[in-house]
């Protein structure tokens, strides 16, 4: 199986130059930064990890929701899967 068609956990396609994890990415500032990252760096996988609490909204992310290099993961507790940090090159935290 070639690396280009290998599927990573959570349905993330392989073959991206870098992976960027943004926690709290559905907030106002972070959501606008994510849109810029997705549009400016199509060879980076941008992963948005958010619990969608009172100040979060996915409305600002609608324009990129179907992009190949964007993935939203909703968490329901403060639990983050142990294998998630191994997928990341860089993490941006907005919590």
TrEMBL record:
The chain crosses the membrane at residues 20-38, 75-94. Keywords: Membrane, Transmembrane, Transmembrane helix. InterPro entries: NAD(P)-bd_dom_sf (IPR036291). One of its GO terms (molecular function) is catalytic activity. PANTHER family: DTDP-D-GLUCOSE 4,6-DEHYDRATASE-RELATED. This is cDNA FLJ50333, moderately similar to dTDP-D-glucose 4,6-dehydratase.
């Amino acid at each position: 199986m070639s690396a280009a068609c290998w599927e990573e956990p959570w349905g993330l396609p392989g073959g991206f130059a870098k992976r960027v994890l943004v926690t709290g990415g559905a907030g106002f500032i972070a959501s606008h930064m994510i849109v810029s990252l997705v549009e400016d760096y199509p060879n980076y996988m941008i992963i948005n990890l958010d619990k969608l609490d009172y100040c979060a909204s996915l409305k600002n992310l609608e324009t990129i929701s179907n992009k190949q290099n964007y993935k939203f993961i909703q968490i329901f507790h403060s639990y983050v899967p142990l294998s998630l940090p191994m997928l990341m090159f860089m993490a941006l935290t907005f919590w």
